[in-house]
Amino acid sequence: xxxxxxxxxxxxxxxxxxxxxxxxxxxxxxxxxxxxxxxxxxxxxxxxxxxxxxxxxxxxxxxxxxxxxxxxxxxxxxxxxxxxxxxxxxxxxxxxxxxxxxxxxxxxxxxxxxxxxxxxxxxxxxxxxxxxxxxxxxxxxxxxxxxxxxxxxxxxxxxxxxxxxxxxxxxxxxxxx
Length: 177
Hints:
The chain is built from two helices and ten strands, in the order E-H-E-E-E-E-E-H-E-E-E-E. The protein is an alpha+beta fold. A six-stranded mixed beta sheet has the order 1-2-3-4-5-6, covered by helices on one side. A four-stranded antiparallel beta sheet has the order 9-8-7-10, with no helix packed on it. Helix 1 crosses helix 2 (about 110-125). The radius of gyration is 18 Å and the shape is elongated. The mean pLDDT is about 95.
C-alpha cells in the first residue's frame, strides 16, 4: 500500500491565524494515533489535524476522494476532548458530525491511550473499505453517478439523476481497493 504520513498538523498561519497551542493530552493522543496508523495496510487518504472553527476540540480527520474526478466523497472526524471522543461522518464544513449510528457515529470515554486505540481502529476500518463509482447514461451524453461502499450500499455522493428503477449501471469503477 502507499506510504503515507498520517495526520499532518494543519498550519493555521497559512490562513493568517495564530499557531495551534495543543496541550499535553492532545499531543499524546496524536502520537499514539500516529503510532497505530503506522501499521495500517490501507490506501492513502487525505488526513489532517487541527481544531474546528469554534476551538472546542482537538480535531483529527480523514477524507475519501475520487482522484480521477477530483471529488471529495466524504470526511470523517474525531473530536478529542481529553477524556472522551466523539467520532463520525462530517456533515458540514465546520466538522460537525452526523450523530446517528448509521454513518458510524460513536462516543467513547477512557484514557488517552485507550481513546487513540479505539479511534485508530475506527479510522483503519473506514480506510480499508472499498469504494465504487457507478455510472448510468443520462441526457446529452452525460452520466448520472453514484459513489458507494459496495459491501453495504451506503451512498457517499451522487451526481445527476440516478435511476430509481434498480437498473444496472453502464460502468462500475473501483475508486478505492
